[in-house]
Design goal:
With about 270 residues, the chain is α+β, with helices and mostly antiparallel strands. The chain has two helices and 20 strands. Strands 7, 8, 11, 15 and 18 form a five-stranded antiparallel β-sheet that branches. It has a three-stranded antiparallel β-sheet with strand order 12-13-14, with no helix packed on it. Strands 1-4 form a two-stranded antiparallel sheet. The longest helix is centred in the last third of the chain and has 36 residues.
């Protein structure tokens, strides 16, 4: 019976975490470049149950020999193993704002490959994003809406001096007679990137530094100025999955309550000494 408590509780915790992931997706449904998270559920490792016993040998000394008998296997429920971002392309939306940019994926030699903008966070570290909702700050630098510098191919902030500029499909910022290549990184396995918040991604500890997309001849892409990539969150599907997670949570909750009533009866009635 106690085993049933743990199984039902594990199911409730898993569905609660899944609900939190779906809620976060729904909250960011209108965030440009946002990639929805997918919670993966996995069962706990299967356990093998054995009965420990001993048999008395028919000898003058009556020695006991320890033995074990296999009873069977048991599974103790499920848990959320990890949340994985889904990097599928979001729909493009025209804004008409020259500082807005969207990455349009083309051919990717790797199934989980993706192209990302490079920016510099408040600590001066390089981060990656699909959110091209950029602006120009008071000093004339191209920045994200959070105030992070957008980097060029050499890893330096892009200074516009407040002048108008054009962005070519190859990702070159044409400004004052010069072409400044945007910092566009290619990740062969975007699933290894770690979400940091505010639409930023960082590398995993064991992940190699990302290379410039222009160094990968097999990758095709284009930059569309005056447009933004919408999130890839399907609001109808997300709401449906949230209802499903709630129902699953409710089912596990009822199982837990049934075990609780059975335990109460066992303690207060069956175990009563008259």
């Amino acid at each position: 019976m106690l085993r049933g408590y743990y199984t039902a509780t594990a199911g409730m915790i898993a569905q609660q975490r899944r609900q939190e992931t779906l809620s976060n997706n729904l909250t960011n449904a209108l965030t440009p470049g946002y990639k929805r998270d997918q919670a993966t559920l996995k069962s706990f490792p299967e356990l093998l149950i054995q009965r420990m016993e001993s048999n008395t040998m028919p000898t003058s000394q009556g020695r006991r020999i320890p033995q074990s008998t296999t009873i069977g296997s048991i599974n103790t429920g499920v848990y959320v193993q990890e949340t994985i971002p889904d990097f599928t392309q979001g729909a493009l939306r025209a804004t008409g704002t020259t500082t807005d940019m969207a990455i349009v994926n083309g051919t990717m030699p790797d199934e989980t490959g993706n192209v990302l903008f490079t920016v510099q966070n408040g600590d001066g570290d390089v981060r990656y994003t699909r959110n091209g909702n950029f602006t120009v700050d008071g000093q004339g630098y191209l920045t994200s809406n959070e105030g992070y510098y957008v980097l060029n191919q050499d890893g330096n902030p892009i200074l516009t001096d407040g002048q108008e500029f054009n962005v070519t499909p190859e990702g070159n910022v044409e400004l004052a007679g010069q072409a400044i290549p945007l910092g566009l990184a290619y990740s062969p396995d975007a699933n290894q990137l770690i979400k940091e918040g505010e639409g930023l991604y960082q590398l995993a500890e064991d992940q190699e530094a990302l290379t410039d997309v222009r160094d990968n001849a097999d990758v095709t892409y284009s930059i569309q100025q005056g447009s933004l990539e919408d999130s890839n969150v399907d609001m109808n599907q997300t709401v449906t999955e949230m209802m499903q997670a709630y129902r699953n949570f409710e089912t596990n909750q009822k199982v837990l309550q049934a075990y609780d009533r059975s335990m109460e009866k066992a303690v207060n009635e069956i175990g009563r000494v008259t």
